[in-house]
Amino acid sequence: MEILKKVFVLFLFCFIGDIISEFLPFPFPGSVLAMILLFVCLTCGVIKSPQVEPVSDFLLNNMSLTLVPPTVSIISYIGTLRDILWQFFFICIVTTVITFVLTAYSVKLTIYLLNKLKGDEKNA
Fold this sequence. Notes:
By secondary structure, this protein is mainly α.
């Protein structure tokens, strides 16, 4: 029963994100809004990490299962995509490189800020 409560919390955020995205005057994915809301609630302490951690760990560990069906679906439309296939691959490669670069700089910034914070604590 405890795990169902934790699943409910995540689905509640997904639902709220979808509802908010319906009322926005511009298109914005509800799932992204849900992640932003969850992040804000976790950061502010409204929701504690143990309330969602087991379910989120399970979903992260099994993420490949959620990505296989869309990939298979894209392959089934290869005939339709044939004319724009090189553009599709170009976009995939460029966005992958951008993601790698941004992730590397995010980690570098986080390490810098953590080291700076530790230095401030030692001086205090």
